[in-house]
Design a protein that fits this description.
- By secondary structure, the protein is of the alpha+beta class.
- Strands 3, 4, 5, 6, 7, 8, 9, 10, 11 and 12 form a ten-stranded antiparallel β-sheet that branches. Strands 1-2 form a two-stranded antiparallel ribbon.
- A hairpin with a 5-residue loop joins β6 and β7.
C-alpha cells in the first residue's frame, strides 16, 4: 500500500489535460484558446494564398494578350500598318495574318479581324496548357478551309483576262476600266497630252505586272509618286504610278499577273487610280499606246 500522500498520479492525454485545465481556473484556458486561434488563422491563410495565385495569372495574360484590329471599309494593309505603327510595315502585318487574309494581301474585307504585332503567335507557343490539344484539333480544320480561299484569291489575282493564263500576260488591274485614254490632250500634263492610260482603282487595289520581266526601278518618282518600272523580254518597259505601297525592288524578276504593289493617289494625282504606261525605254518621253501593246500580247481589253 503506497505511503500516504505519495500515491501515483495517472498520466493524462492531451484531451484529458484540456478537461482538467477547464476545472482548475480561467487562467489556464488561455492555452487552448491561443492554439485554436492560431489554427483558425492558418486555415484562413491557406485559402487566401490559393486565391492570390489565380489572380496573378490573368494579370500576366492580359499583358501578353495580342491586340486586334477590325477592318473597316476603305482599309488596306499599308494604311492599317501606318495608322497602327506596325513594326515591319504592311509586309509584317500580312505575314502575321496570312491565314486570315489569304494569298492576296489586297483582298481584305470589312469585319476581318487582324492581329497587330508579332507577339501573338510567340506567346501562344510559349505557354502550353491542358487545352492545347483541343486548340490544335480546332486549328487543323481551319487550315483545310483556308486552302480553298487562298486558291480562289490566287485565281482572282491572276485572272485579268482568260488569255493571260496561257500567254503569261495580263491587265495591270483586274476588271480594267479606262478612265483617261492615252494621248488625251489637256493642260494638266507637262507634255500637253496624257502619256499613258488611267485605270479606275480604289486605294489598295492589287496592281500586277502585265508580263514577265525584271524590275528596273521601284520607289518615289516625283509627280508619279510611288512607281514601278519593269523591263520585259521583248525590250519594252511598263510603268505603274501613284501606288500606295510597293511590293518589289529593283533587280527582282517578276511573272505576268504577279502583284507588284497597291494602287493609291501618291504624287501629282487628283484621286486614287492607276497611271499605266508602256515605253520603248525606262524613262519619261518614250511612251507608246499601252492598250495596243497589251492586245498585241493577246490580252483582251
Amino acid at each position: 500500500m503506497p505511503t500516504k500522500g505519495k500515491h501515483r498520479r495517472t498520466k493524462t492525454g492531451p484531451i484529458s489535460r484540456g478537461v482538467l485545465a477547464a476545472g482548475t481556473g480561467g487562467a489556464v484556458l488561455a492555452l487552448p484558446l491561443i492554439g485554436a486561434t492560431g489554427a483558425h488563422a492558418a486555415e484562413q491563410a491557406a485559402p487566401a494564398a490559393e486565391s492570390a495565385a489565380p489572380h496573378s495569372a490573368p494579370a500576366s495574360a492580359a499583358k501578353s494578350a495580342p491586340k486586334t484590329y477590325s477592318v473597316v471599309s476603305g482599309d488596306y494593309l499599308a494604311k492599317i500598318a501606318a495608322d497602327k505603327k506596325v513594326k515591319g510595315g504592311w509586309q509584317k502585318l500580312y505575314q502575321d495574318n496570312r491565314d486570315v487574309v489569304g494569298e492576296n494581301p489586297s483582298l481584305i474585307v470589312p469585319g476581318m479581324k487582324l492581329t497587330l504585332g508579332a507577339k501573338a503567335s510567340g506567346s501562344a507557343e510559349s505557354a502550353p496548357s491542358k487545352s492545347a490539344p483541343s486548340a490544335a484539333k480546332k486549328a487543323a480544320p481551319a487550315e483545310k478551309t483556308a486552302a480553298p480561299a487562298e486558291e480562289t484569291a490566287a485565281k482572282t489575282a491572276d485572272s485579268g483576262a482568260s488569255e493571260s493564263d496561257s500567254s503569261g500576260w495580263a491587265t495591270p488591274v483586274e476588271s480594267p476600266d479606262v478612265t483617261t485614254q492615252y494621248r488625251a490632250s489637256g493642260a494638266s500634263w507637262s507634255s500637253g497630252y496624257h502619256t499613258g492610260s488611267d485605270f479606275q482603282a480604289a486605294s489598295g487595289t492589287s496592281v500586277r505586272s502585265i508580263g514577265p520581266g525584271t524590275v528596273v526601278s521601284a520607289g518615289w518618282s516625283g509627280s508619279y509618286g510611288n512607281e514601278v518600272v519593269i523591263q520585259h523580254s521583248d525590250g519594252m518597259y511598263s510603268q505603274y504610278a501613284h501606288l500606295s505601297s510597293l511590293e518589289v525592288s529593283a533587280g527582282q524578276t517578276v511573272t505576268g499577273g504577279q502583284q507588284i504593289g497597291l494602287s493609291g493617289t501618291t504624287g501629282n494625282s487628283t484621286g486614287p487610280h492607276l497611271h499605266f504606261e508602256v515605253r520603248t525605254g525606262p524613262s519619261y518621253g518614250s511612251d507608246v499606246d499601252p492598250i495596243a501593246y497589251l492586245r498585241s500580247h493577246g490580252v483582251s481589253i
